[in-house]
Structures are given as C-alpha cells and as structure tokens.
Amino acid sequence: MPLVLGLVGLRRTRRLNLTGRGFAIAGIALGAVTTVVCSALVFYLVMILRSDAFQELVHIGFAETELTQAPQMSLGECFDVSGDDLAPGPTVDCAHAHDAEVVGVQDVLFESYPGASALDADTRDFCLETFPEYVGVEYEDSSLDMSYLFPSMTSWAQGDRQLVCYVVAGIGEPLVDSVQGSGR
C-alpha cells in the first residue's frame, strides 16, 4: 500500500507542481522495502512448513506412530498398546487376549534419513500390500483397524530402520487369537 500511495503522490507532485515530493519518494522506498521483507518472510515460512523436520513435528497420518526409540518387532508378534498413541507395549502370547498383532515388517533400504513424509508414504503402501497376505482379506473389507510405525529422525540416528504394520480389533476391543489367515 505505501508503494502505491507513494507512486500516486510522486505523480501528483510532478504534474501539479506541488511540494511533498520527498514524502512521496520516502513512501515508495518504504513500500519497496516492506514488500521485499514480507516476500522474504513468506518464502522462508513456506520453506520451513515444507521441510521434513517440520513435517515430522506436526505429522498426521491414519493412526501412525513415530517412536523416539522403536523396539524391534517380528511378524506375528502380539502385544498390548500403551497410551493413546497406540505405541507398542509389552509382548504377549497371541493365544491370550491382546491389543495388537504385527502383520508386516520390512527394513528400510535408504542410506540416509529420507524424511517423515517419504517414510509415511512407503509404510502406508507397504502395510496395504502386506495386510491381505497376512490376514487373508483386503484392508478395506476387514473389520480390523491398521496402524503402523516407522523410524523418526531420532530413532533413525539410533539405528532404527524398521517399518512395522499392526492391526487392532477396535477401541477397547481385544484380539482373542491370532489374525493370521482369519479373513477378519
């Protein structure tokens, strides 16, 4: 706005031979500086919001969990969850009531940390592929809910390279047996 008003003021002072030319030039200068500074701030804000580090802080997915130090999980392992984020708790015998069962495990082959967005997409794709192989029915047709784990930047630095897919029966409902081949 100051840039536009400064240009209008400069034009009027020239055309009508009025005083105030200095104020018009100051308005133009302040408007230009403000425009450059605001543009730079918007550019840096966009870059920060698109960065993997920021995405990891505010990451949202369909019930995925990032752990700072993920336990090594095995296919078919049953466990109880701890907390509201469905993080793996103690391992239990699948013949007894349990909260979750691992239906897919894969090691990541990246040399360096690829970022939360890339790992989220890879893990989601992997879980949707492995679910029917383990459970015996497509995820969309299943009565089970699926969640997954992938390395965070912190756990990656500690050597975590595992993508883990697991199923839960539903909120407050335990699994009673293994879901392998159950078609649930």
Describe this structure in words.
This protein has 184 residues and is α+β, with helices and mostly antiparallel strands. The protein has 5 helices and 6 strands, in the order αααββββαβαβ. The protein has helices at 2-16, 21-50, 52-57, 116-135, 153-157; strands at 64-67, 78-82, 87-92, 100-107, 145-151, 162-168. It has a 6-stranded mixed beta sheet. Helix 1 packs antiparallel against helix 2. It is rod-shaped and about 95 Å long. The protein starts with a helix and ends in a 16-residue tail after the last strand. Mean pLDDT is 80; it is low at 59-69.
**Biggest sheet, spatial arrangement of strands:** 1-5-6-4-2-3
Order of helices and strands: HHHEEEEHEHE
Shape: rod-shaped
Largest sheet: 6 strands, mixed
Structural class: alpha+beta
Straight-line N-to-C gap: 63 Å
Mean pLDDT: 80
Total helical segments = 5
Fraction of residues in β-strands: 15-25%
Secondary structure: helix percent: 40-55%
Cα gyration radius (Å) = 28 Å
Summarize this, please?
By secondary structure, the chain is an alpha+beta fold.
Question: What's the layout of helices and strands?
Answer:
Blueprint: H1 2-16, H2 21-50, H3 52-57, E1 64-67, E2 78-82, E3 87-92, E4 100-107, H4 116-135, E5 145-151, H5 153-157, E6 162-168
Parallel strand pairs: 1-5
Antiparallel strand pairs: 2-3, 2-4, 4-6, 5-6
